[in-house]
Specification:
There is one protein chain. This protein is of the alpha/beta class. The chain has 24 helices and 27 strands. Strands 12, 13, 14, 15, 16, 17, 24 and 25 form an 8-stranded mixed sheet that branches. A 7-stranded mixed sheet has the order 3-2-1-4-5-10-11, with helices on both faces. A 4-stranded parallel sheet has the order 7-8-6-9, sandwiched between helices. Helix 18 (553-574) crosses helix 19 (590-599). It is globular. The two termini are 41 Å apart. Residues 3-13 and 784-795 have low confidence and may be disordered. Belongs to the phosphofructokinase type A (PFKA) family. ATP-dependent PFK group I subfamily. Eukaryotic two domain clade "E" sub-subfamily. GO terms for molecular function: 6-phosphofructokinase activity; AMP binding; ATP binding; fructose-6-phosphate binding; identical protein binding; metal ion binding; monosaccharide binding. Beta-D-fructose 2,6-bisphosphate binds at residues 482, 539-543, 577, 584-586, 640, 666, 672-675, 746. Catalyzes the phosphorylation of D-fructose 6-phosphate to fructose 1,6-bisphosphate by ATP, the first committing step of glycolysis.
Length: 795
């Protein structure tokens, strides 16, 4: 693979080369309900296990296969997990197993594992599957003693298999497991739901219909909540937060008001486990009958059912599952080198992989149900975790419009603009900002065409109803340009004076960041810029300092992944073919690297990791060796600006020449298709929440800087960028981020995703160094927090 992983600094970093898997046996199984992305997790476990020298086994049909043994437990090879990354469900099968719940069943399972010398178990499933695995681990020594007494295993076999190590990964589309922000399969299920909702919206609009949609979630309302947030639904029913006693009147009144404002459709989303405050089920048919009886609206019910479990996994789920799979193997290797390590689950908090004690997570998950049974619904919401709580708070802010008389009195004018190239999710962020701003009592102004429109005076007030239906729209409805404000400061200051703009929200890419820097630097000269200013990153390139993620990059990743899937399918038909694919990103290799990880690329060339002709030659040789196996295809991704001389044509010609007689080549430049399309659920949700948080910061800062009848603030911390850093959303002064920026190449000097490069190389069978400094720390689940006095603190 191109480049190296950098010098080893043994004093500060820990590398997994110290963890040897030789002589160890790892088994992987999927259990319970299937979820998209499970195959990516299985692939990562198998390839990482083989990479470190361990033997890896598939256990087919979950715990049933472990109990039955025989052909259900077979050794996995590198090639046996090829082509499964893009496949939904689980190719090794999953089954509910009553026998494993009995002592006799677990005794049979133990015998089958001992016969294969398997002492490391990776379980991918829900809380039931993981609880079963933990019980199995606790009983392990007793089960071995019974097997010895029955003469089924020898004393030597007991000694060499004395400890069973368990690591869990949560595969569940419901996202109902405490301790992780996202479970494997949730994002893909949201993709299925939003695809259906987007399609339904067009027909509903044509006929002025109301649609009631039932989504999965018997005990957890995450899918219903996030899909409601992502499509701007009129009403949502979830089990964790039942509606008040008079909900029928309130809902019908809201639907009626929406129609009176010329909204041609209504969307109501219902989790299958939805209940009222007396724990009585609320069904889709009951809601339909209510709407027809009270309002006379033409109403239809759609039950999505198992569509949500099916289909191709999203880019997010593939990356999540691949990261979790590699982390699971590292956890097993470390556990087998130490005594009494508790069974753990690898999970995602913010943007970081963490390990948590399995039973702590299970107990917390069970506490949620207990709180709901006892009608302690606010406790249930907090127990679900910060991510769930944030979604609920944001949905309430955006969906329930207050009467003008209920709004706080504010004389502040806040302007919103898009700057830079279009990015999917920008419109959802604008909608969120406008509606939260109005709820906070501000007068909201929309600026068309970025800073260019600003200095030309293309500014108008924007109302609540003006942004209806914006979440699902791609591109930028406000219009966006790359023009920087530096050459037009006089005119922009004049427009701010004319419209009495008291605060600015800029949603955009690198130009937005540089523009905010220019405005904040000009505060000494222009008092008009001495107002709160905040930027929300929105660019497919994900190249903004101060934030791990940008609005739009997830949609672009899905576009890249979908195209690569089709190309791989084409290559598998023709055999011995290598595709060279060019991605966007400027000098930032995020799309190429993470897209390569999600698509199963063999090589990815990026600017941040320099490469030369020897690297190119080594990569060609690597593909030549691959063509001798049963996987006779190759996928090479190249970031558009990775090297001035080694452009896409050069690499294509080099591979074509060097691969003569072994493989042939094709090239594909993806271009602007990466910027287009409807925003992914992640980008809709992320944009909505980030913009809401930004406006709440604006409100707080306006109040603090309002003195002597006017807004005035020139402190650096009032010109900020709001970004995700590891586990938290953080406001950072743009002046401080200057030192973190490579302005020539328009990228941050340090980028977190470079740590994923070695992982991608390992899964493509390259020898490399992998820094695991962030791994290995077993953390604890955060217990229930006292109720916040201000909901804005957590959005």
């Amino acid at each position: 693979m191109a480049g190296t992983a950098g010098p080893k600094r043994q004093d500060t970093r820990k590398y997994f080369e110290n963890l040897d898997g030789a002589g160890k046996c790892i088994a992987v199984l999927t259990s319970g309900g299937d979820a998209q992305g499970m195959n990516a997790a299985v692939r990562a476990v198998v390839r990482m296990g083989i990479y470190v020298g361990a033997k890896v086994y598939f256990i087919h049909e979950g715990y049933q296969g472990m109990v039955d043994g025989g052909d259900n437990i077979i050794e996995a090879t590198w090639e046996s997990v090829s082509s499964m990354l893009q496949v939904g469900g689980t190719v090794i099968g999953s089954a509910r197993c009553k026998e494993f719940r009995t002592h006799e069943g677990r005794l049979k399972a133990a015998l089958n594992l001992v016969k294969h010398s398997i002492t490391n178990l990776c379980v991918i499933g829900g809380d039931g599957s993981l609880t079963g695995a933990n019980l199995f681990r606790e009983e392990w020594s007793g089960l071995l003693n019974e097997l010895v007494e029955q003469g089924l295993v020898s004393e030597e076999e007991v000694r060499s298999n004395s400890e069973l190590h368990i690591v869990g990964m949560v595969g569940s589309i419901d996202n109902d497991f405490c301790g992780t922000d996202m479970t494997i399969g949730t994002d893909s299920a949201l993709h299925r739901i939003i695809e259906v909702v987007d399609a339904i919206m067009t027909t509903a609009q044509s006929h002025q219909r109301t649609f009631v949609l039932e989504v999965m979630g018997r005990h957890c309302g995450y899918l219903a909540m996030v899909s409601a947030l992502a499509c701007g639904a009129d009403w949502v029913f979830i089990p964790e937060m039942p509606p008040e006693d008079d909900w029928e009147d309130v809902m019908c009144q809201k639907l009626s008001e929406n129609r009176a404002e010329r909204k041609r459709l209504n969307i109501i989303i219902v989790a299958e486990g939805a209940i009222d405050c007396h724990n009585k089920p609320i069904t889709c048919d009951y809601i339909k009958d209510l709407v027809v009886r009270r309002l006379g609206f033409d109403t239809r019910v759609t039950i999505l059912g198992h569509v949500q479990r099916g289909g191709t996994p999203s880019a997010f789920d593939r990356i999540l599952a691949s990261r979790m799979g590699v982390e699971a193997v590292l956890a097993l290797l470390e556990a087998s080198d130490s005594d009494n390590t508790p069974a753990c689950v690898v999970s995602l908090v913010g943007n970081q992989a963490v390990r948590l004690p399995l039973m702590e997570c299970v107990q917390m998950t069970q506490e949620v149900q207990k709180a709901m049974d006892e009608k302690k619904f606010e406790d249930a919401v907090r127990l679900r975790g910060r991510s769930f709580e944030n979604n609920l708070v944001t949905y309430r802010l955006l969906s329930h419009r207050k009467a003008d008389s209920e709004l706080p009195s504010s004389s502040f004018n806040v302007a919103v603009l898009n700057v830079g190239a279009p990015a999917a999710g920008m419109n959802g962020a604008v909608r969120s900002a406008v509606r939260v701003g109005i709820t906070e009592g501000h007068k909201m102004f929309a600026v068309n065409d970025g800073f260019e429109g600003f200095y030309k005076g293309q500014i108008k007030e924007i109302k609540w109803g003006d942004v209806g239906g914006w979440t699902g729209q791609g591109g930028s409805l406000l219009g966006t340009k790359r023009t920087l404000p530096g050459a037009h400061l006089d005119k922009i200051a004049e427009q701010m004076r004319i419209y009495n703009i008291n605060a600015l929200l800029v949603i955009g890419g690198f130009e937005a960041y540089v523009g905010l820097l220019e405005l904040s630097t000009a505060r000494d000269k222009y008092n008009e810029f001495c107002v709160p200013m905040v930027m929300v990153p929105a660019t497919v390139s994900n190249n903004i300092p101060g934030s791990d993620l940008s609005i739009g990059s997830d949609t672009a990743l899905n576009a890249i992944t979908d195209t690569c899937d089709r190309i791989k399918q084409s290559a598998s038909g023709t055999k011995r073919r290598v595709f060279i694919i060019e991605t966007m990103g400027g000098y930032c290799g995020y799309l190429a690297t993470v897209g390569g990880l999600a698509a199963g690329a063999d090589t990815v060339y990026i600017y941040e990791e320099p490469f030369d002709i020897r690297d190119l030659q080594a990569n060609v040789e690597h593909l030549t060796q691959k063509m001798k196996t049963s996987i006779q295809r190759g996928l090479v991704l190249r970031n558009e600006n990775c090297n001035e001389n080694f452009n896409t044509d050069f690499i294509y010609q080099l591979y074509s020449e060097e691969g003569q007689g072994v493989f042939d080549c094709r090239k594909n430049i993806l271009g602007h298709m990466q910027q287009g399309g409807a925003p992914s659920p992640f980008d809709r949700n992320f944009g909505t929440k980030v913009a809401a948080k930004a406006i709440q910061w604006v409100t707080k800062t306006l109040k603090e800087s309002f003195k002597g009848g006017r807004v005035f603030t020139n402190s650096p911390d009032t010109a900020c960028l709001l970004g995700m850093r590891r586990r938290a959303m953080v406001f950072q002064p743009v002046s401080q981020l200057r030192d973190e920026t490579d302005f020539v190449h328009r990228i941050p000097k340090e980028q977190w995703w470079l740590k994923l490069r070695p992982l991608m190389k390992i899964l493509a069978k390259y020898k490399t160094s992998y820094d695991v400094s962030d791994s290995g720390q077993l953390e604890h689940v955060t217990q229930i927090r006292p109720r916040e006095t201000k909901t804005s603190a957590d959005i």
